[in-house]
Write a structure and sequence with these properties.
Elements lengths: L64 E5 H7 L4 H5 L38 E5 L2 E2 L19 E7 L4 H4 L6 E7 L5 E11 L6 E12 L4 E12 L23 E4 L12 E4 L2 E3 L7 E4 L5 E3 L5 E3 L7 E2 L5 E2 L5 E3 L16 E16 L2 E16 L7 E7 L7 H9 L4 E6 L9 E21 L2 E21 L4 H8 L1 E3 L5 E3 L2 H5 L15 H7 L6 E22 L2 E20 L1 H4 L33 E21 L3 E14 L3 E13 L5 E12 L3 H5 L3 E9 L2 E10 L7 E13 L7 E17 L3 H9 L3 H4 L2 E2 L9 E5 L1 E20 L8 E17 L8 E2 L15 E10 L3 E10 L9 E2 L13 E2 L7 E11 L4 E8 L29 E9 L1
Parallel strand pairs: 2-5, 33-37, 43-44
Antiparallel strand pairs: 1-4, 2-3, 4-5, 6-7, 6-47, 7-8, 8-18, 9-10, 11-17, 12-21, 13-14, 15-16, 18-19, 19-22, 20-21, 22-23, 23-26, 24-25, 26-27, 27-28, 28-29, 29-30, 30-31, 31-34, 32-33, 34-35, 35-38, 36-37, 38-39, 39-40, 39-41, 41-42, 42-45, 45-46, 46-47
């Protein structure tokens, strides 16, 4: 993929909505994407510079901006534009259809959104034609899959704070999609693809039309697109050889010893492969008591479980040679780490139209409509691991030999764990996101004296309706009652509890590979699983004015000012079994009252315990921005000062100010300029952080040396205040010097500090702090409950943290004609790289220490911010064909910067600084190739092969069972082939 660093204050092609951007490309690369002819003979070009509200010829903004042009988009040949942009090195930690695939309860499966600088999606402002877009989730971020992508002419990525210009959320920067608003003709694209494993089949069909009517005053653009990405099927139990032949899964994990055990000079963590969670087996394992080590197989026949590490059960829940929760090797048939789907299935349907009418040569009124639907499906895991069950020895499903052994050992019960291999189907999460967005606006020009002013105003209203439905998932109280079975009359087997029997309980045999009745499955896994219905609404009105009211001794002074009002609100309702039965979630025919269920807090499902909630906030803003040229000299060059201020009033937290000040110095040295900017940026807490009802997900923590399954109970906090950030960037640009035509380069250093940052401690951090004696944190946990599924950790966001990150971006490009060597066309080399020096988060909580996640490649330590991320492209372009090669690079890293690597003579491990035998994780280099051939002047065929050498992802070990990959940094699909045809008439 070719990433242009397009024009420095380029001259836009004519039209009221033509845009330009200030970056680092050569003039040869600075041509506008397509001529956007104006209506009316007297119309003049307008300059709109992303990262600034100013519109002024000759204005070089101090904030670095990288542009992805239409040519870049076409060469990348991706079924979703999100995948093209995500490759930019400055985008770190962006979500997509390969992330959160093992999640049932997050509600973010299949959501595609950007994260700049690794600061998270909520600190990146994503715009469409400079306008906010209706969020697709109550964390406040849009879904790029719902954008009209065929009419996008370029995407500007501002890698610096832009709150003063664009408002809240632009702490990490801005991603602005810019459409062709004067497109005329027909544009079509058809793309299909498949992986080398024969899966993830995909098809994209896009069609757009644009034309002029009413004496060329009415301009209409209409586009429709359909995209389908099949995703990957779920895996299986154990280490099965991989989904459709992906044999890279090796059950990597960290064998974990208690801190107290490390007095022997050996590490706390050992990297292992073939991790065996010895607390459960596929069809059941007695995991404590004198019968520990007895597993159940075909037809429920008991057998001696094969522990890894030559382990021997000790009768107390532990295994010699193993440390909770793992042995190494042995019987891995109950391992569930390979079972989640690697990529969600996505189906996207987007319709978009824009109509603009020129009232006169200087005024246009316009309206846009976007209707979008995105469907996704993922499979979080097979079965349902339950490591902490208690079984009574008189259970009627137990083989006679086990009942006899119980009597011989004088016990009436034993500990039991299973990954419930009897369940025939994996959990399925189906998500539907519907969006309606309507915009009505006006833009134009007016004069006051000798000054011409440009203005734009718009009102937007958007609704996102989100539906989440989970199927093939068990209802915990039903499962617990059904497996506790006793002998009934006439040789029958019934549920022990009389209350459960009266409520329709059907016994379920959990011992071995046995066949349960359809009625038993229907009782344990009801047809109507967890569900959530949400409505997200956004209303925006904005008015902006820009002009050049006077001139200084060095040139015209540009001024912009404006106001904006916004309201965000959401409401969500959940099923009563997950939410708890109450006014917001009553029982119904689908979810009848049941005496076994917890009617207070809900949480009755194995996972997917959604909650009902609502919230709203309003925003009122006013801003002003000025560009003041103060130097123009043949000897010293030219320089300008750019400054902006914005005052924002939040209904939830009061008034805050954002500002920026910076400048650009065009030196007298050919093509050389310096730029610098510092800003105060703000981010208000979003609806989720403020008002989210409890979100419950399953998790695993290490407590007192043991692995414990817990519920993560996350809630909102209405007392949150806005974050305040200080963002500073200093850079140098060399653009098309006379001594090397076609060459450009830039270097930009950035330093971002966020105070009062909104964060939430992880489950493990809370548990560690509790274990270290923090009573505040201990009040948030329950870790010793004997009742399965009731241990929990409560998590909520708070304003205490300080975040600091710094690093630098490098961009190089060289373009040369090939006529000198007797070949047609041009050859272009380009390189973009981001180096993160540090990314330190200080929770400012007693007992917690600052952590640095820069250079951490493993998810156990953060895993979204490598030391280096880079993109290299080489392209040969002619009038007839093009060929391109690109390389995506992620540097080597560590699992955690707070871990101490040692093999012997290790210090005693602490929770803050544990020891590990190997703290290195390899990076990756992926090679992609593509090309196109013009069949006619209007039609071209193209191809793309991603990950040409089919490089496998690096193992991603965790302290619990997981999918074993880090999709934020590594390619998890393998080699992908794509073919397509596009046409423009």
């Amino acid at each position: 993929m070719t990433m242009s660093a397009a024009a420095q204050a380029q001259e836009a092609s004519p039209g009221p909505e033509a845009e330009a951007t200030e970056t680092t490309a050569t003039p040869a690369e600075a041509t506008a994407p397509e001529a956007l002819p104006a209506s009316g003979d007297s119309a003049e070009p307008e300059l709109v510079i992303t990262g600034s509200r100013l519109s002024s010829r000759g204005f070089n903004q101090p904030t670095p901006t990288t542009t992805i042009t239409l040519d870049d988009i076409q060469k990348a040949a991706q079924p979703n534009l999100f995948a093209t942009i995500r490759q930019l090195p400055s985008l770190l930690g962006s979500s997509g259809r390969t992330t959160r695939v093992n999640s049932t309860s997050s509600g973010q499966q299949g959501l595609s959104s950007f994260s700049l600088r690794g600061l998270g999606e909520v600190r990146t402002l994503t715009l469409l034609d400079g306008q906010r877009v209706t969020p697709a989730n109550f964390i406040g971020v849009p879904d790029i899959s719902q954008f009209p992508q065929l009419l996008v002419e370029r995407v500007d990525v501002v890698t610096g704070g832009a709150s003063a210009s664009y408002g809240s959320d632009a702490v990490g920067g801005v991603v602005n999609f810019i459409t062709n608003k004067r497109f005329e003709g027909v544009r079509a694209n058809l793309l299909t693809g498949i992986t080398t494993y024969g899966d993830d089949k995909n098809v994209t069909a896009q069609l757009a039309w644009g034309g002029k009517l009413a004496d060329d005053r009415l301009h209409i653009q209409v586009s429709g697109e359909y995209g389908y990405e099949q995703g990957l099927p779920h895996g299986d139990f154990g280490v099965s050889g991989g989904v459709n032949g992906r044999d890279w899964y090796n059950a990597a994990a960290f064998l974990t010893r208690p801190n107290s055990a490390t007095v022997d000079g050996r590490p706390k963590y050992f990297y292992i492969e073939g991790a065996q969670q010895y607390q459960y087996a596929k069809f059941g394992l007695i995991n404590s008591g004198p019968l520990q080590g007895t597993a159940f197989g075909a037809n429920g026949v008991p057998f001696q479980f094969q522990y890894g590490s030559n382990g021997v059960p000790l009768g107390n829940g532990q295994v010699s040679g193993c440390f909770s929760p793992f042995c190494v090797g042995g019987d891995l048939s109950g391992q569930i780490g390979e079972s989640p789907s690697i990529a969600s299935r996505i189906e996207r349907m987007v319709g978009y139209s824009r109509a603009g009418y020129d009232i006169d040569a200087r005024t246009e009124v316009f309206a846009t409509v976007t209707l979008a639907r995105v469907l996704s499906r993922n499979f979080p895991n097979m079965g349902a691991e339950r490591p902490s069950l208690t079984i009574q020895c008189d259970n009627a499903f137990l083989p006679a030999s086990i009942r006899t052994a119980c009597a011989a050992n004088n016990i009436t019960s034993f500990g039991f764990g299973t990954s419930t291999g009897q369940f025939p189907d994996p959990i399925k999460v189906n998500t539907k996101r519907d969006q309606q967005r309507y915009v009505l606006g006006i833009n134009g020009r007016f004069d006051t004296g000798a000054t011409e002013w440009r203005y734009d105003a718009y009102g937007a209203y958007g609704i996102s309706d989100i539906a989440v439905d989970v199927s093939d998932i068990s209802l915990q109280p039903h499962f617990n009652a059904a497996i506790d079975a006793v002998a009934g009359p006439n040789g029958t087997i019934v549920c022990r509890s009389a209350v459960a029997r009266a409520a329709g309980c059907v016994p379920f045999n959990v011992f071995g590979d046995v066949q349960n009745s359809a009625e038993a499955f229907a009782y344990v896994i009801p047809e109507n699983g967890p569900r959530q219905r949400s409505k997200q609404e956004q209303t925006v009105v904005a008015f902006n004015v820009t002009g050049e009211p006077f001139s200084s001794w060095a040139g015209p002074v540009a001024l912009a000012f404006g106001i904006e009002g916004r309201e965000e609100k959401y409401r969500t309702t959940a099923d009563p079994y997950g939410n708890g039965i109450g006014p917001a979630s009553p029982t119904s025919a689908l979810y009848p009252a049941d005496p076994l269920l917890n009617t207070t807090i809900g949480n009755n499902w194995y996972a997917g315990n959604y909650k009902s909630g609502k919230g709203r906030y309003g925003v009122r803003e006013a801003y002003a921005e000025v560009n003041f040229p103060f130097l123009k000299s043949e000897m010293l060059g030219e320089a300008n000062l750019n400054a902006a201020i914005r005052v924002t009033d939040y209904s939830t937290s009061g008034t805050v100010e954002a500002w920026k000040i910076g400048g650009v110095w065009e030196t007298p040295i050919d093509g050389l300029r310096f730029r610098a900017v510092t800003s105060r940026d703000v981010r208000a807490p979003n609806l989720s952080e403020l008002f989210a009802a409890q979100i419950v997900t399953n998790a695993t923590v290490i407590y007192r040396g043991n692995s414990i399954n817990v519920q993560n109970r996350a809630t909102g906090n209405t007392d949150l205040d806005p974050e305040i950030a200080r963002n500073t960037e200093v850079g140098v640009v060399l653009s098309n010097p006379g001594w090397l035509p076609g060459f450009s380069a830039s270097f930009d250093y950035y330093d971002i500090k966020i105070g009062n940052a909104i964060i939430a401690l992880s489950n493990q951090q809370i548990v560690d702090l509790c274990e270290a004696g923090s009573q505040d944190q201990c009040a948030k946990v329950l870790l010793d409950s004997p009742i399965p599924g009731t241990n929990y950790v409560e998590v909520s966001a708070f304003n205490a943290a300080n975040i600091k990150t710094r690093g630098f971006d490098i961009e190089l490009s060289y373009r040369m004609p090939l006529s000198g060597v007797g070949l047609p066309g041009t050859f272009t080399l380009r390189a973009l790289g981001t180096h993160v020096i540090e990314y330190v988060t200080d929770p400012d909580v007693i007992g917690a220490i600052p952590t640095d996640t820069a250079g951490v490649n493993g998810l156990v330590g953060g895993g979204t911010i490598p030391d280096w991320k880079a993109l290299f492209t080489q392209s040969w372009d002619t009038d007839k064909f093009s060929l391109n090669i690109s390389e995506r690079f992620v540097s080597d890293g560590v699992y955690s910067n707070e871990w101490i690597e040692c093999q012997t003579n290790c210090p005693v491990a602490t929770n803050q600084h544990p020891t590990v035998d190997d703290n290195s994780m390899d990076g990756a280099l992926y090679v992609d190739i593509g090309g196109s051939y013009n069949l006619t002047e209007q039609v071209s065929a193209y191809f793309r092969v991603d990950n040409v050498f089919n490089k496998d992802p690096e193992p991603n070990p965790l302290t619990g069972v997981g999918p074993g990959i880090n999709p934020f940094l590594y390619d998890v699909l393998g080699r992908v082939f794509r073919l397509g045809v596009r046409a423009t008439f």
